[in-house]
## 1
Amino acid sequence: MAKTKIAYFCQSCGFESAKWLGKCPSCQQWNTFVEEILEKTNTSIPNWKSSPAPSQRANKPVQVADITFTEEHRLLTPDKEFNRVLGGGIVAGSLVLIGGEPGIGKSTLMLQLALNMPNIKVLYVSGEESDKQIKMRAERLAPDFGESRIKSQESRGEFGKGCYVLTETSTQNIFKQIEELQPDLVVVDSIQTLYSAHIESTPGSVSQVRECTAELLRFAKESSTPVFLIGHITKDGMIAGPKILEHMVDTVLQFEGDRHHVYRILRTIKNRFGSASELGIYEMLGEGLREVSNPSEILLSQRDEPLSGITISATLEGMRPMLIETQALVSTSAYGTPQRTATGFDTKRMSMLLAVLEKRCGFRLGAKDVFLNITGGIRVEDPAIDLGLAAAIISSHEDIPIPFKTCFAGEIGLSGEIRAVNRVEQRIAEAQKLGFEQIFISKYNMPTAAKDKKRLDLSRYTIDVKPVGRIEEVFGLLFG
Ligand code: TYD
Ligand code: MG
């Protein structure tokens, strides 16, 4: 019998220690160590094709020039947003982690994907739901589902073909089924429910999550089958289980959004096969997720007359320009301490903007309640939204509406200067495409040398581009 080996793991970052510690030396959290039994590694439980001894497969150094390079094979899904977020389709043998809060729609996203790829075999492994529950969900996601149910069953044709469901939590059993079925794509809902017989501790614990991921990683690389792992997120936004998970997988995607809004965002956090700042937008409908290919149109609300406190900012999420509506409400505080609330925007950054407006422009906002809201329930981190927000705050404070068809793209510095933003050409082009008539940008974005002129050629645009250097200038132009 194998000797029982015990180790202590930090549940927050996965740090391993031989003895119990009160404070984790790695992530500085208190009381996060739990005992886990590591055992059975040398017993005869089948593993994913036990790897050969290291000496047999030692690699030799090669010159870079001698390495033959072939474009990695990518599998295109019918979901264009998903392809783009992954950097152009699913890479063979890649391990992708999809994180998100419970109920945000991770299972829906992956099942919908699995059901809509009739030309390949997809294995959807679920440790969370029974096959009946999955069937019920699949029914909801079926296109053309309505009164003529029986008829549509036949006319559905390709829908759901090639999608196999397995409700199982033991990795050894999963691999057994995989060997039999030989799927082209595997989805695991969720990594926290799996357990490996090689490890004694309970499913969801650090060492189990790590071992199961390692086994799936080995499988993905050796069989060149892409594997998607769904992972839960803890309250503070970390993928539950060790941070180590993020290092092991090739790609980390985050599915986020406000549960009370219909929009969901799929964001790349890490991607070994593409840009890590991509973003896809979906709308959650009664019959599943719908891709939103033109986000600007849905994020701008329809109104007939200009209202105070509302501005449009030209932001960039990943590679994609997006026009976002921001709203501000400034009112006299009823209590001693003014309230400052921001939805979809960093509260600290809002405080900074308010301080700049107070100190540099002389607006007395100290005793005012300020509420900021980014519509559509999305979160914006692009600093180019600063200028639009500041304009919204002042517009609400002075109760003067911003003229129609005006938008903004500029970062505000601590001394009230408008700083340049990246890819300004793309932002201007998007604003023009959506029918805006003027856009305020930083004057530092304007071309100075001839070579810049080629890049930002303003004569190409019909929209009125207004370069500004300081925040007071903007207010002068807007409010007179
Ligand atoms: P789910 O995929 O179960 O979330 P997760 O796997 O991330 O925990 O999403 C469930 C939510 O989505 C639930 O609140 C119902 C809603 N939903 C729809 O609005 N439309 C649909 O077609 C489906 C299947 C779910
Ligand atoms: Mg789920």
## 2
Amino acid sequence: MEFSIKSGSPEKQRTGCVVVGVFEGRKLSASARDIDRAAKGFLSDVLRRGDHDGKAGTTVLLHCVTGLPSDRVLLVGLGKEREMGESAYRRAIDTAIKALRATGATDATFYLTDLGLRKRDTAFKVEQAVLGIMEGVYRFDRMKSKPAETKRALRKVTLHVARRGDIAEGEAAAARAMAIAEGVRLARDLGNLPANVCTPAYLAGEAESLAKHHGLHCEVLGEKELEKLGMGAFLAVARGSRQPPRLIVLEHRGARKKDEAPVVLVGKGVTFDTGGISLKPAAEMDEMKFDMCGAASVLGTMKAVALMKLPLNVVGVVPATENMPGGNAVKPGDIVTTMSGQTVEILNTDAEGRLILCDALTWAERYKPAAVVDIATLTGAMVIALGHVATGLFANTDSLARELVQAGEASWDRAWHLPLWDDYQEALKSNFADIPNIGSRAGGAITAACFLERFAKSYPWAHLDIAGTAWKSGTEKGATGRPVALLANFLTRRSA
Ligand code: BES
Ligand code: MN
Ligand code: ZN
């Protein structure tokens, strides 16, 4: 997809489709009014006839409007003008691109980027438009025997900004957003791939090819090396699987000062989570192929960071394994020694994410990191607590939590800060080992974070539980690519 930024009068645009907004109550937006004037009131006529009332999520497509040099005009409902906020804006973009895809237009000009949004600048609107459009045109048909669509595809989008002076800002935002969109797409592709294709070795190969094509450094550790390092918890999870585990390390060395302390991203890479001997019920178990979405978001973010050439050192660490039952699998009650030396009683083999992450967190110490952020589809309890809107955020350092919350707000890929008070640590008591791998059912997402905290003592650390936000279920089943946008924004701010 090619994006360009323009200002100037909409009625003169020669384009496959003009996309304009209409507020609820049949009120034309400013650009729509310009077009209406050029078309001698045709748009107003359409509204008056009752064909469009501006309700959010609705569209009307007009062809061959006299007085306009464009082939089509797409009216997009914006909802109530007073309620025009970030979510309504994103919804308008999503609605528009969905309708646009159904047309034969190969290029289009969006007049949504010039809408007024309280406290949001042109950069935000352009960035969200690019991300929304790229999300909307995304299809995952790699596993179909033949591609589903034969229609001409949208290839060029022009985003209209209100003033000439906004063009430079818009262009910079579009370039940044394209890099992030590339990262999001990679994360979605990896998440959507079935577990018989996307194995730990496949993820490692993906990291190696990222390194090769984008100037990153890659290192992949196998079973023997993990044993030598003493990663007893990670290896315990991998025991039941025929697919050997991998520890994947990707480095972006972009800082002006070469030895600057890096930010380390650690992504849960369980390529399939059956639960192990504590086997999961059959219903929706297919969705556990998404249990590597944390890993996918790390690889996606590394790609975005490389494309943006951020002047920052960033390390991506991915422990990758399947969680399977079997004759060799780890059993409830087994006790393992982690790389940190702490022993863990594995009371439930389905709480495997924290077991692979704890050793990866200890591994991260060798980088003397400025900060470590882990990203994991860690708990079902997180989905119950925050649903599918906000990612759960925990941290041992409040300033790091604040940075991530702000990055989430700025990129509209939001996270919500939850407590990690010592009181919750009470739930982690074992009669036989230093700690168990599960706490109480109550506050399950918090006690999981408490477990990780014990392995993150030597640096500022945050944990993002993306169990509710990494993928969608139902008819729109598929990976979302979250929280690549949040992470890319966080790292961009850190590099500034
Ligand atoms: N990958 C799951 C978490 C999960 C479950 C994410 C459902 C999204 C939807 C994780 O490995 C897991 O199984 N967690 C258990 C922990 C429990 C055994 C303490 C859970 O949440 O049920
Ligand atoms: Mn599990
Ligand atoms: Zn899991």
## 3
Amino acid sequence: MQNFQFHSPTEFVFGKGTENEAGFYVKKHGGSKVLLHYGGGSAVRSGLLSRVKASLENAGIACIELGGVQPNPRDTLVYKGITLCREEQVDFILAVGGGSVIDSAKAIAMGVPYDGDFWDFYSGKSPEAALPVATVLTIAAAGSEGSGDSVITKEDGGLKRGAGSDLIRPKFSIMNPELTCTLPPYQTACGATDIMAHVFERYFTNTTEVEITDRLCEAVLLTMIKETPRVIADPANYEARANIMWAGTVAHTNIVGVGREQDWNSHGIEHELSALYDCAHGAGLAVIMPAWMEFVYKHNPLRFAQAAVRVWGCQMDFEQPENTAREGIARFRRFLRSIGMPLTFDELGAKVEDIPALVEKFGIGDGRTGGFVKLSAEDIAAIYRIAAAPTLL
Ligand code: NZQ
Ligand code: ZN
């Protein structure tokens, strides 16, 4: 195991009715004037936004609103939010929504105290200050409610890029699984896929002797395999929703990934798809993650065979562990299919002729990138081609 430092200061407030405590927690964490940030309307339609506003009012917290965050959130609304917060002297940002709303809130939080362009933080610069951010989560997916990450798309040029800092880890996250019962099955499945991908990006590692994090990863994956079909069949199943919601957080605070080298190439390769086609991140991952697996499994077939046996219930082929590895990847794809995810470029609406442009935008030139396997631009093109015509089904 490698040395590590793990800082996860978020206060998680989990369970039925907890959104009514939003005002109490804003006050507890020092907020007096809040920017209430939300998405395209689901939080308004469900009455959630009204309940949160009432809770803030009861606690004597002033608030202003900025809705309209789109999935794959854009820089244009972030600039608007930064100006608004400065004009109104906002000292706390409360995101009510999913990963997109939370990431937009985090971007605004870094931008407000910064003299330059907030996009600098999405081009490699580290922030030195940020307004405090908190969340009321409405979808189990991105894990942004517990992560120090934010992903924003620059409209001009369609660049989707990430920023990371402990400064933007939420102060608190309110997590009521009931709020996720209104999610359409497709969005639920996209979220589930993202959660599983967050674990796989950590699971496939060159670091040895990482039994504790291997087992934690496997626990999250097994939970998702059991609970996702239950909520697809019965969207109002509170207990299954609750298990998925907490799995989503555990998958991405990095508690399952500490002390091991990780590989985030599938996410990077996917981000080019959601930037170009504006597809859901989870749907893009359903197409890319198994394609990446198909491309890299030979690097360490035993690690893939371990996942196949422990997570997918495959029989170990001791003579040829590569067969077991391949069966595990095929079962992953069958699972994704069973929850309604796309598996190919075609099904996602992506085009083979765009592959050179996707690789170009990925932007590694003659370099290599990755943890488990270091990929060149040609390797990335090969992964897109596998995603267009997968063989392990
Ligand atoms: O905008 P509204 O009307 O709220 O609708 C949303 C949106 O259309 C809807 N929705 C959310 N909660 C709902 C609901 N509909 C009905 N009932 C509810 N309770 O769901 C749609 C998707 O929402 P979004 O916030 O985009 O989903 P998600 O949480 O999957 O976030 C995706 C974004 O997070 C980024 C992705 O790249 C993508 O941009 N990621 C962020 C990460 C992070 N910050 O740590 C890590 C991830 O790997 C990921 O890259
Ligand atoms: Zn993700």
